[in-house]
């Protein structure tokens, strides 16, 4: 039975920039993202003066009718979905507005109405084992991907469908859209993943091979069985390859509009996907936390998504693509950051690497200095690290702004007193008054120094070179500020505090640890 919302939805559609995060409980957001020093709310819109992609819109033309349906699957089971259609005869393209395990059909349907009122069918579905979809929930598994494939092909075959299907979603829904894309359903034409993965193991569960304490609340509330299964797979094996986009990048060959946040935990994944598939992936990265940009600083609204679907699903040649392959907001902002940049690639052309060394006096300079060693202790407390449990190094205040455009890579030369160990490298912006804010971070379990697919024991007392890549950033360090690097074995709750007790000796000075920054100076 159809429910007709009538004229009310036509009025609502102009306001429906509802963020998925606004309807999503904290547990549904795959663990909270870093919330360090979010920019204040402001009215900037991406490329408003120069890029028509971000100001695109057209009037609502249809009322919306909704039907709850059961979509059949190849094994005889089904998915519970709400199907939203224009209240008119004819065929329309289809958007899988979200495919998650959170049973939010009603609220997501209200958000999807913006697109339905402009000539799209929209399906909002519960994954197998969630909401009204029977079965066992196994997030991002091959079974869940097959179900998503079947959903797309069923939607394409309906008499009210043109056969062109797109998929979008945030977090769980973003992951789903990327994973179904690499399965290559014939009628999937384009996707819009927001805060999506490249690899579930690396991006979420095991940070540098170290279990993330942050994810367990999501596991308990959404998929409690994974508390057992994930712990049974500490190494990267076929279980994780099944849940990886990176393992199948060659099959990510349809148009992809990635929406990322420089304050979000999946920014490294979104940058990785772009760099792997520059030809068919566009990246928009803003000053956002986890979730839809709507309601956050620099909200881009629904216009860009509509332009994307009009281009790839409806074939409207007047619907623009982004003016640049990468549209990135330089954080923090407003203030030190200078806002939106249009870039042809990432890192930007002209970016260079700057190598710094750790000094015996706690300095961070280009001059290596004499070889030396500094020690920090390791315990398993989850409280903030004590002074003897971390090492800190900082530059002198910069005389002019320094723009970081990419990851910071640390090659830490270290010896452990135990047979394994964890390393965490954190970069901070230190203001003249001493206030520090986190810029980025990275982690590595020492036994995973040759990769996560096998563990290589650590010999106590032996010095190893351990390469740690931080999450990428687009960050302006203002003149008068300093860069601080912290090296420790703990960064709870980003990683478990499971390093063996003991000590770590870090080699500094000439021949020791180095820190490589990716920096960029914009040319007029």
Your description of this structure?
The longest helix is centred in the N-terminal third of the chain and has 16 residues, at 142-157. The strands form five sheets. The chain has an eleven-stranded mixed β-sheet, sandwiched between helices. Strands 14, 15, 16, 19, 22, 25 and 26 form a seven-stranded antiparallel β-sheet that branches. Strands 17-24-20-21 form a four-stranded antiparallel β-sheet, with no helix packed on it. The chain has helices spanning 7-13, 20-23, 105-116, 142-157, 172-181, 200-205, 216-222, 226-229, 238-241, 267-276, 303-312; strands spanning 3-4, 64-72, 78-86, 92-100, 121-126, 161-170, 188-194, 206-207, 210-211, 256-261, 281-286, 326-330, 339-343, 352-358, 364-365, 372-378, 390-394, 402-406, 409-416, 422-430, 436-445, 463-469, 473-477, 482-488, 502-508, 514-519. With 524 residues, the protein is an alpha+beta fold. The protein starts with a strand and ends in a 5-residue tail after the last strand.
